[in-house]
Amino acid sequence: MKSYYITTPIYYVNDVPHIGHAYTTLACDVLARFKRLDGFDVFFLTGTDEHGQKVEKSAIAAGMSPKEFTDKVSANFRALGATMGYSNDDFIRTTEDRHIRSSQAIWQAMAARKTPLGRDNIYLGKYDGWYAVRDEAYYDESELVTGPDGKKRAPSGAEVEWVEEPSYFFRLSDWGDWLLAFYKSNPDAVGPATRLNEVRSFVEQGLHDLSISRTTFGWGVKVPGDEKHVMYVWLDALTNYITAAGYPDVEGEKFRRFWPADLHMVGKDIVRFHTVYWPAFLAAAGIATPKRVFAHGWWTNEGQKISKSLGNVIDPVKLVEKYGLDPVRYFLLREVSFGQDGDFSNSAMVRRMNTDLANDLGNLAQRVLSFVAKNAGGEVPQHGALADADRALLGAAGDLLVTIRAELDQQAFHKALEATFAVVAEANRYVDAQAPWTLRKTDPARMATVLYVLMETIRLIGFALQPFMPTTIGRLLDLLAVGADARSFSHWDWALKPGTKLPAPSGLFPRFVEDAPAAKG
Ligand code: MSP
């Protein structure tokens, strides 16, 4: 069986989970479910990033030790998984022993090897420069901007502080040409293409060596052989992807099966870490590089940047309570071209629910299934010879698998959904054109064929939508009496058996009606 290893970023453990976090992992969940249905042995990883100065500061503010604090708040991200219906195979915490061992091992592997120019990858020096705790990132003076308060800030808006301390460095400056050659020979390694261009021009401008240890605080993985230093949190964090695959046991079954990862899904803000530092660290340690990193855009809320200070953070729990899980999953991946920025608004959400889900898909299933219950004895109808219109609709539905497979391999979730809903629209037009309610009186045999074609089409639409809306589509397939063991894509061409008894139909996608505002007075 072919393997597929997909990862989300690991989330800063002290953050309160919001829609942005939910989004990255949702995209991975849909791909993981798709690949499982498509016959892959999938390993889907998410988890929490628990070291570093930011977490240490939050622990102190909460009056707890960093260990107590991270044990407590890491649960918030596990809970997000339950809220959003994720199907991850592992949940890694960077404070686990397996990860500390792995981070120290990659450090030692880098230290033992030379750069492409024959020099040591790691050397001891002194860092003096700017650091943003919120981003856990170093910045050059030239990158800084002046905030409205006149203070220097990182381009992300995070406050920066001047740091002077002994530090180990990674000789990133020796890896520039290697990285440019790597992008050239692996054009799929970074997506979308605009991000690849940005990264390439960043590297072309010349790379500085990277500070990879800190001494002024203690909450991190200790540098092997020099315990006054803790590793730079991003080196430790990125290493989670190989830890979960069993590193340093590179001969182990798991590592051989799943590494290099097929896809690291990330937000656009952390592209540089994943496409410059990470491949360089891996190459320096003699480890294969991931096949692809894809960066999605950012969500705003009703047109405004989402931030804790603005108080407009969208809580996934509230969203799911209000609209239901599957509509939220559908909306997030349908509304915005994956890779672009997007805006969450109540009106857009309700429009998608009432148009695509209730009117188009829900109504198609509802009218066909209740008609079958009333007029075809509540069982899969017996079909006769197929007419051209029947073959055209079944053909369009049948082609969906090839289309969505190709779109999802490019992380074009919106296009996969667009293609599927084009078939929903075609099926609705077919119902109107064939008018089974008229055939009931004039030609019952033809009516049975039309209903059969529609049910088969709905089955295929359901197959395509399973990864996106697993619960509701599971119910749809129940209503079609498709057994739980007949829902993988190896059953794509399998067809409904005439005469199979069907359960009583029920609605799947209710219209969303906003609560009437309370009467005043
Ligand atoms: N801990 C690092 C990642 C380490 S990976 C080795 C981190 N964590 S984070 O919690 O700040 O962000 C995790 C993900 O959430 C990122 O991919 C980021 O892009 C995404 N989002 C955070 N806010 C977002 C929006 N408003 N919209 C969309 N995604 C955003 O970075």
What does this 3D model show about the protein?
This protein is an alpha/beta fold and 521 residues long. The chain has two domains: 3-297, Rossmann fold, CATH 3.40.50.620; 346-491, Isoleucyl-tRNA Synthetase, Domain 1 (Orthogonal Bundle). The chain contains 19 helices and 18 strands. It has helices spanning 19-37, 53-61, 66-84, 97-111, 176-185, 193-204, 233-238, 240-243, 253-258, 271-285, 316-323, 325-334, 346-375, 388-398, 400-409, 413-434, 436-442, 444-465, 470-479; strands spanning 3-7, 11-12, 41-49, 90-93, 122-132, 137-139, 145-146, 152-153, 161-170, 190-191, 210-211, 213-214, 230-231, 263-267, 293-296, 299-301, 304-305, 342-344. The strands form five sheets. Strands 1, 2, 3, 4, 10, 14 and 15 form a seven-stranded parallel β-sheet that branches. Strands 6-5-9-11 form a four-stranded antiparallel β-sheet, with no helix packed on it. The protein has a three-stranded mixed β-sheet with strand order 17-16-18. Strand 16 and strand 17 form a beta hairpin. The longest helix has 30 residues, at 346-375. The radius of gyration is 26 Å and the shape is elongated. Bound molecules: 5'-O-[(L-methionyl)-sulphamoyl]adenosine.
